[in-house]
Design brief:
It contains ten helices and 16 strands. With 379 residues, the protein is α+β, with helices and mostly antiparallel strands.
Length: 379
């Protein structure tokens, strides 16, 4: 779990351990109506008496100060403004996983890191004074303290074309590693079957130290991995786009100069960051936004996932910082339309001719009455 440093957090930033089977009952006690976003947190339903007694005892054992913070945490879990899943790979290993729950539509407002212990019985929650702390932490991974370069490379792919392209990139990396181990050099040449095998390996074995398995986490929730026929179609598209070239034998493929540039920069990656954020848009419908950042040497590559396509592009650090903030910014809350009430105009009260005070309309008798003189006005 990505945990902010002591300098970035308030003294309240300690770890809170919350039994998973207590949350449902506490939400009911707090009269919090659970939203669809809370389903992402895997909160189990616990309505039986045994769990109620267990929850009440656990709650009673907490200090008053902890109860105040725990109420805020549990309320946010039941009705979050945004839930962000974040995966980070440092170098070739060192996987960091975290889930951030945002309490409002402002990234600068408090948020929480929420994880589970090994046996899945407890939520481990860390308070963040500001959601922007997470953005700042991720930005450090993208900067990596290394030399930074820029390029104008940018392509918009279908998801199938993107998966195929990254499958080729991983094949190039494997081929280069084999060449280094065997002290040989040879031109990079692949077949469509080898590209399909690379994609299939990424889906089947999910070794996220490689590029495609790490990126595919972002897109396979809604998209099925491409078939061999779809891979063949995507390879032809990549040839047309100038990333691959068909060799003279008519059966094998090589990387063009732009494709080779991408592959060579990804031979050495410092860090990889994958963000998926889930919220409710202005129309009240569930919405997802996500991206993958690959801090290579010396380029920062980004995969920006849209509904039916994905953009593969290089980024400078300023653009990356803005993109991070947008990914971690909850969408505006849905605002229901309220029809204005039609107000019936009231007649102007007449003045009593005797006392000079306004009269009062009596609906039952359809007449004006003066409470000062205690009599009805003449019609």
């Amino acid at each position: 779990m990505v945990v902010p440093t002591e300098e970035q957090t308030s003294p309240e930033a300690k770890l809170y351990v919350i039994p998973r089977y207590a949350v449902d009952h506490m939400l009911e006690s707090f009269q919090v109506e659970r939203t669809r976003l809370s389903e992402i947190l895997d909160i189990p339903d616990t309505n039986d008496q045994q769990w109620r007694e267990y929850t009440e005892k656990w709650w009673g054992d907490q200090t008053v100060e902890d109860q105040h913070m725990l109420r805020r945490i549990i309320t946010a879990m039941g009705a979050p403004a945004l839930v962000s899943n974040v995966n980070v790979i440092k170098g070739t290993d060192g996987l960091l996983n975290t889930r951030a729950v945002f309490t409002s539509t402002r990234i600068d407002d408090p948020a929480f890191f929420i994880g589970q212990d090994a046996d899945g019985n407890n939520y481990n929650v860390t308070y963040m004074e500001s959601g922007s702390i997470l953005a700042a932490t991720l930005f450090m991974y993208l900067d990596a303290g290394q030399e930074f370069g820029t390029t104008e490379f940018k392509l918009t792919f279908s998801t199938s074309d993107l998966i195929t392209f990254l499958g080729v990139i991983d094949l190039y990396k494997r081929s280069s590693y084999i060449g280094l181990m065997e002290h040989t050099t040879s031109e990079f040449i692949v077949t469509s079957q080898e590209v399909y095998n690379s994609v299939d390996d990424a889906v089947t074995y999910s070794d996220i130290r490689w590029t495609l398995p790490f990126v595919i986490l972002q897109i396979t929730n809604d998209v099925q991995p491409p078939t061999q026929a779809e891979i063949n179609t995507s390879i032809n598209t990549l040839v047309q786009r100038g990333v691959l070239k068909l060799n003279e034998d008519g059966q094998t493929y090589s990387l063009t100069e732009p494709g080779l540039f991408c592959a060579k920069t990804m031979m050495h990656t410092f860090n990889k960051v994958n963000i998926s954020s889930f919220g409710i848009n202005e129309s009240g419908s569930p919405a997802k936004k996500g991206a993958v950042f690959i801090r290579a040497d010396p380029i920062l590559w980004a995969v920006l996932v849209e509904k039916d396509s994905a953009i593969f592009t290089s980024m400078d650090l300023d653009t990356a910082s803005e993109t991070l903030s947008q990914l971690l910014s909850p969408p505006p809350a849905a605002v229901p339309k309220i029809e204005p009430k039609k107000v019936q105009a009231q007649p102007v009260a007449p003045i009593c001719p005797k006392c000079g005070k306004p009269a009062t309309w009596v609906e039952a008798y359809k007449r004006w009455y003066c409470y000062s003189c205690q009599e009805y006005l003449e019609a």
